[in-house]
Design a protein that fits this description.
The protein is of the alpha/beta class. Helix content is 41%, strand content 9%. It is built from 17 helices and eight strands. It has helices at residues 16-27, 43-46, 50-63, 88-96, 106-117, 124-131, 146-154, 187-199, 217-221, 228-235, 238-243, 260-265, 271-277, 281-284, 286-289, 305-310, 320-329; strands at residues 2-5, 32-34, 73-76, 85-87, 100-103, 136-139, 170-174, 202-205. The strands form two sheets. The chain has a four-stranded parallel beta sheet with strand order 2-1-3-4.
């Protein structure tokens, strides 16, 4: 986070210990100090080490050329939430806590997210935070467990001065589970969204059905086409691929027995393709496409920025993956 500390805070002795801890964050580059006031004669700086004094001198020079509007966190002597200002004590608690990406399953969802972070140059800052263990992907165990997982984290701050959500830096990323593009989100999804809005927590509901639907077709092109379900999947158009259920397929049923919206989405596929796609990949090719093995495909050599973005070309938001990156960067 880019942090501005009011110069008056450097002359209050009760702030000094927390300021020392904060400056360790700045010197380690976990957070960035925006310093546009000369604090060289402040009581805190007079008692600081030569290294810290030099650091403040450099940051003050840099601050003269920075845009203050970029500041993420403002810190003063007292909390002033109307103006989004934290006290030194409470600002330190916020900065100390690492951002959390709440997902359903840390392993599978994590592999999807890492495939983005490792292939987009926009993720240099995110990757640095992962390298230094300054960010966490945390699985909650299912959609119904998001509120419980977040509440467990918020409970850590129940004895602090501010509402506990003021200390949490987090984002929720969840599958849409949509069976067709314009399907409404479930009540469970809406409960998650309402809760996040109430607690001022960022969230992102994936546009496609599940993370597996973000696998580029280039990955499947590398699998033997003599297996019927792979060939049939590649015969689907991009929108059909975005909402196909990899695990269960069409649950062994004929498409004509489904909701008219699903029938419309998959209209035109051949009888043979429908037959092979009915049971899903999990039952057809267990070695490659079991529930546990499937997410490992996000490590495939054909995964790249180009192929990931190409797979999103026909979405309502073709730059959805970049939007996820921006939402996460805002927490750092």
């Amino acid at each position: 986070m880019i942090v501005h500390i009011n110069s008056a805070a450097f002359n209050v002795e009760s702030n000094f210990q927390k300021l020392n801890h904060m400056f360790a964050f700045f010197e380690d580059e976990k957070h960035t100090l925006f310093l546009n006031e000369d604090i060289s004669e402040s009581e805190w700086v007079n008692n600081a080490s030569k290294i810290t004094k030099k650091f403040c001198e450099i940051e003050f020079k840099n601050g003269a050329y920075s845009i203050e509007a970029e500041v993420d966190l403002r810190i003063g002597n007292e909390n002033d939430l109307e103006n989004n200002i934290y006290s030194v004590f409470d600002g330190y608690i916020l900065l100390q806590n690492n951002p959390i990406i709440f997902v359903e399953n840390a392993t599978s969802d994590g592999l999807f997210l890492y495939s983005i972070f490792n292939n987009f140059t926009e993720c240099d800052k995110i990757n640095k935070n992962f390298k230094n263990r300054w960010i966490e992907v945390r699985g909650v165990g299912g959609k119904n467990e998001f509120k419980k997982g977040i509440n467990n984290e918020l409970r850590k701050f129940r004895k602090e001065n501010l509402p506990n959500e003021k200390y949490l830096r987090a984002i929720v990323i969840v599958d849409s589970d949509k069976k067709y593009p314009h399907e409404s989100l479930s009540n469970t999804h809406n409960d998650i969204i309402n809760y996040c809005n109430e607690k001022k927590i960022k969230y992102h509901v994936l546009e496609k059905r599940e993370i597996e639907n973000y696998l580029p077709i280039e990955v499947f092109n590398d699998f033997p086409h003599n297996h019927p379900i792979v060939k049939s999947y590649l015969n689907l158009n991009s929108k059909q691929q975005s909402y196909y259920d990899f695990q269960d397929g069409f649950k062994g049923r004929a498409i004509k027995t489904f909701d008219i919206n699903i029938q419309d989405l998959f209209a035109g596929i051949s009888t043979d393709d429908e037959k092979y796609l009915r049971v899903g990949f999990d039952r057809s090719i267990k070695d490659f496409f079991s529930k546990k093995a499937f997410p490992l495909l996000f490590k495939h050599a054909r995964i790249s920025r180009e192929t990931l973005l190409k797979n999103c070309n026909m979405q309502n938001d073709p730059e959805e993956l970049i939007q996820i990156i921006k939402k996460l960067e805002h927490l750092l």
